[in-house]
C-alpha cells in the first residue's frame, strides 16, 4: 500500500474525477488507515511504498504492477499524469527481490489484471492495451483471458470484477462481476467460464462494490455495497465493509489501494 500523503484530485482522467469535488485530506488519511488496519487485523502483512510528491494517484497501489510468484510485470500508465509511478513501483519490487519484466505496452497493473488460479483475467478498452495482455502472459508464463470493458464508469477490470476465491487452495475459483461493464462477447466468456458467479447489481457496482480484496474467507469491500455484501455472505464468505468514500472521488476503493503479492 502507499500512504495517501499526496492524494488529491489534481486532474480528471476518468468519469469519477471532478476538479470541483475536492478530497477531504484528513478523512482520506483516516479511511486509508482503517483499510490498512483491517488487513493487519485479518493477519495479513502490509508493506508500504513511499509516495512520490506530485503523484496524487500513487495511493492506488494496484496499478503499480502484477505480481505472481517471484515475478512481476511492471506498469506503463496510459496518461502522462501517472507515468512516474511505473518506475517507482518497479524499483520497489526489484529492491524487494521480485524479478520485474519492464513493460513495452500500456498497462495499469492489477487495475486491469486479476490473478485467478492458473490464469490471468485481463481487461482492455480504456487503459490497458490488448498487446499488453500477450506481454503479461509471456512475462508471467500464465494464460491470459482478455475481456473488453465498454462502460467508461468501469474503466478498469478491478471495478467490474471481484475475485472472491482465486482457486489456488482446495476450492474452485469464484468471482462476482457486473455484466453491464462488458461487451457482449466478453459477457459470454464470463458466463462460460464462471456459470455460478455472483452477478453484481448496477447500484452496487456504482459504489465500486466490486473493488474488493478477498483472502478466500474475508471479503474486504466498500461499505456502501450492501447488496453485494449480502450475496457474498450467503455464499459463505465473511464480508468486511470499509468506507473509502474519499477515494471514490478519484474512481478508486479497496482493491485500487491494494497491490496483492500473489504467491
Ligand atoms: N484516479 C485513478 C485513475 O484514474 C484511479 C485509479 C483506480 N485504480 C484501480 N485499480 N482501479 O487512474
From TrEMBL:
SUPFAM superfamilies: Pentein
Annotated organism of origin: Aeromicrobium fastidiosum
Protein name listed in UniProt: N-dimethylarginine dimethylaminohydrolase
Amino acid at each position: 500500500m502507499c500512504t495517501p500523503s499526496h492524494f488529491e484530485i489534481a486532474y480528471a482522467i476518468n468519469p469519477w474525477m471532478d476538479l470541483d469535488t475536492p478530497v477531504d485530506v484528513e478523512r482520506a488519511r483516516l479511511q486509508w488507515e482503517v483499510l490498512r488496519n483491517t488487513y493487519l487485523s485479518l493477519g495479513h502483512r502490509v508493506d508500504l511504498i513511499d509516495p512520490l510528491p506530485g503523484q496524487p494517484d500513487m495511493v492506488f497501489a494496484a496499478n503499480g504492477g502484477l505480481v505472481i510468484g517471484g515475478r512481476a510485470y511492471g506498469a506503463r500508465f496510459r496518461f502522462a499524469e501517472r507515468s512516474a509511478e511505473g518506475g517507482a513501483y518497479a524499483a520497489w519490487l526489484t529492491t524487494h527481490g521480485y524479478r520485474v519484466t519492464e513493460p513495452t505496452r500500456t498497462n495499469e497493473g492489477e487495475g486491469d489484471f486479476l490473478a485467478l488460479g492458473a490464469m490471468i483475467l485481463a481487461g482492455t478498452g480504456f487503459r490497458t492495451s490488448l498487446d499488453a495482455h500477450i506481454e503479461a502472459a509471456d512475462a508471467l508464463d500464465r494464460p491470459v483471458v482478455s475481456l473488453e470493458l465498454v462502460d467508461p464508469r468501469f474503466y478498469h477490470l478491478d471495478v467490474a470484477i471481484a475475485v472472491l476465491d482465486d482457486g489456488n487452495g482446495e476450492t474452485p475459483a469464484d468471482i462476482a462481476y457486473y455484466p453491464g461493464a462488458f461487451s457482449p462477447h466478453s459477457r459470454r466468456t464470463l458466463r462460460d467460464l464462471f456459470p455460478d458467479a455472483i452477478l453484481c447489481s448496477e447500484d452496487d457496482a456504482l459504489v465500486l462494490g466490486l473493488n474488493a480484496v478477498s483472502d478466500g474467507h474475508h471479503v474486504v469491500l466498500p461499505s456502501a455495497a450492501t447488496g453485494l455484501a449480502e450475496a457474498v455472505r450467503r455464499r459463505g464468505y465473511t464480508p468486511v465493509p470499509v468506507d473509502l468514500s474519499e477515494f471514490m472521488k478519484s474512481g478508486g476503493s479497496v482493491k485500487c489501494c491494494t497491490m496483492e503479492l500473489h504467491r
